[in-house]
Design brief:
Shape: elongated
CATH architecture of the largest domain: Alpha-Beta Barrel
Number of domains: 2
CATH topology of the largest domain: TIM Barrel
Number of strands: 20
Radius of gyration: 23 Å
Structural class: alpha/beta
Helix content: 25-40%
Strand content: 15-25%
Length: about 400
């Protein structure tokens, strides 16, 4: 996004025009940024040509996933619904990995029938269930085992997944036991060691530590894994104070690891692919004056963008039409939902706003729409994809009639 003659624009389209045509709140995505992100990711790791499986949970819009598929990515899914949407978007089953700690019998059976690349199991009970279903179907199923490497990703505790107190994966002892168990099975084939240590990671050092743990465990297991699934978690810069993850240093660490292990690397990026391609357009409904601050009441709410209420995330907020007027008051941007947590950010020296003005919350492409809900019986927002000078509606605004 950039300002063109004081009008905030996405590629060649004014945000103001999008709001006039499609209303607010509306999620808006840039195709150019999506393509740039994917190409940048591929280029940084081209020395070992990984299988890149887009984390569907970060954005579940089937039309956006179709574009991601056309740009060569597979899919990482964590539910039957996500697997179905990946398949509907045209992603090849052999480029799909099924993760998650609580897969149901129905989900496992569906994944087996669709002949996906891997089911990454996270407990012995799950492996026994996969084996039982595979035996009933008289086939052999490819699985991975997710290791919990007890690695602190130095990120928010709510999105940490690789420490021993987290619910994900198995510890070293159980991992070795499961490798031995899989060796003796006729209906499961152990193909992959899988890890994922967290989300919004901006430092390569936790990844480097994770690789060292994996390296030691593979050597102790004396097992040849066809795939090493390193998960995702690569962060983006939501604020000016955020540094960027150094892909080159991570690439160097992986190449060093691969000198000892001739395995295919799998990545599961989500946020780093779609996070900064999206923005949420909203309108100022009312300005409620207060002694210490003014409440900017928006038509977008926590049901549209849950991240700030869920774990205190902050999204850069911009006025759609730039002026030279600065407010003397502190602005607190809030939604209309009947919860005190329905607030987005508090800002000083923001541009002076008036009722009916438009604002944009940036970097909402990941875990924006996918975490949205119908709380307070509010219809879900529209979604549009900008390609140069074209606006493509990739999901219509939900109607109250459909909801009720």
């Amino acid at each position: 996004m950039k300002y063109i003659n004081n009008n905030l624009s996405v590629e060649k389209i004014k945000i103001e025009d999008i709001a006039k045509k499609f209303g607010t709140p509306t999620y808006c995505y840039s195709y150019k940024k999506l393509k740039d992100n994917i190409n940048n990711f591929k280029n940084n790791f081209k020395s070992f040509s990984p299988l890149i499986c887009f984390a569907i949970k970060s954005n579940t819009n089937v039309n956006l996933i179709k574009e991601i598929r056309k740009l060569g990515l597979g899919a990482d899914v964590v539910s039957m619904g996500e697997l179905m949407v990946a398949l509907k978007a045209g992603i090849e089953p052999k480029k799909i990995v099924f993760s998650g700690v609580g897969k149901t019998v129905t989900e496992i059976g569906f994944a087996i029938d669709k002949k996906i690349l891997l089911i990454n199991a996270e407990s012995k009970s799950e492996i026994v269930e996969i084996e039982r279903i595979a035996k009933s179907k008289k086939i052999t199923v490819n699985i991975g085992i997710r290791l919990n490497p007890n690695t602190d990703a130095k990120t928010l505790k709510q999105i940490s997944t690789g420490k021993k107190e987290n619910k994900f994966g198995v510890d070293e002892k159980v991992f070795f036991d499961l490798v031995d168990y899989a060796k003796l099975s006729k209906n499961i084939k152990l193909k992959c060691l899988s890890v994922h240590i967290g989300s919004q990671i901006l430092d390569h050092k936790p990844y480097k530590k994770m690789l060292n743990v994996i390296n030691k465990i593979i050597k102790r297991s004396n097992y040849n894994f066809e795939f090493i699934d390193l998960g995702g978690g690569m962060g983006i810069s939501y604020e000016k104070t955020n540094k960027k993850l150094n892909y080159q240093k991570y690439n160097m660490a992986i190449n060093k690891f691969l000198k000892d292990h001739k395995s295919k690397i799998i990545f599961e990026p989500g946020r780093s692919i779609v996070g900064n391609i999206g923005s949420l357009i909203s309108k100022v409904l009312y300005i409620k004056e207060n002694e210490k601050k003014d409440f900017i009441i928006l038509d977008a709410a926590m049901n549209d963008l849950m991240r700030p209420a869920l774990y205190g995330a902050n999204h850069k907020t911009l006025p759609v039409i730039k002026t030279n007027q600065v407010s003397k008051k502190i602005y607190e941007f809030v939604g209309p939902i009947c919860e005190s947590t329905d607030k987005f950010t508090t800002l000083k020296k923001f541009q002076k706003l008036n009722e009916k003005d438009l604002i944009v919350m940036c970097d909402t492409g990941a875990y924006g729409m996918s975490l949205s809900s119908n709380y307070n019986l509010r219809p879900k927002a529209a979604e549009v994809l900008i390609k140069g000078s074209k606006i493509n509606v990739i999901k219509k605004r939900q109607k109250l009639e459909e909801l009720i």
